[in-house]
Design a protein that fits this description.
Length: 290
Amino acid sequence: MSTDQQPPSSSIDYQTLTRERWDERAPIHASSPTYNLAHLIASPTALSDALTFDLPRLPPLAGKSIAHLQCHIGSDALSLARLGAQRVVGLDFSGASVREARALAGKAAGGERCEFVEGDVYDSVELLGERAFDVVFVNVGSLAWLPDVRRWARVVAGLMRSGGGEFFMREVHPSLLAVEGGEGGRLAVEYSYFEVVEPVVTDSSWTYVKTEEGGEVPKVRKCVEWNHGLGEIVSALLGEGLRITMLVEHRSVPYEAVRGHMVEIGGGEWALKEGRDRLPLSFTLRAVKD
């Protein structure tokens, strides 16, 4: 989470605040060496760091139709296309992110198999024309912006085809989202592990990407987040009739989640400087709709 916690309000307009946050950050992220879009454009076989990490655990993608929820600026959607997907439809409610994604797809090999739709993830089934996809894909940094994990699970199940449709997600571990860094490498539990009605509202201009020295600093500071326990996530998917086929916890996450307490270990991944076995930082989950 961030610093400078403020009293949350149940009446807060989280959608507008979050959209403004991502609209401002999208061009900053697109020009950042963290995403390195120039390399993806120049090299027709290059993959994003996130997809490279996921390779050992991804379901077969060749010839598949894929819905990528909360796709941000499109680097992962492009990478899914390059891994053989027949069609990748990315959805994000940030108009600026969708514009960056479309621009990337227009310049990069594999982009011709990508489509990007602007809209709220909770409206995905309606916005994507009630299509049934072979694979629904979600990547790190998605669930914290949503207040209701059960409603999200209904969307996931509603997009999957019956008779073998697959769901794949890698996400920040809820244990990590519950902690804050302290002195001497200590980690303290400061936030709720479980989903609660009230979000955590913070004030910070921080963004997770590397920027050039003297580069633009985001001005939208308000951040509204919810945590969802791992059991809540799994139970929500099971409640929609999905069958869990993989659940793996990882000792790394693709950004410096606890600033000052982590070290970059390669491939865009970060791990704790000390005691890496203390805490899972991310997890991968796969499920099937029989």
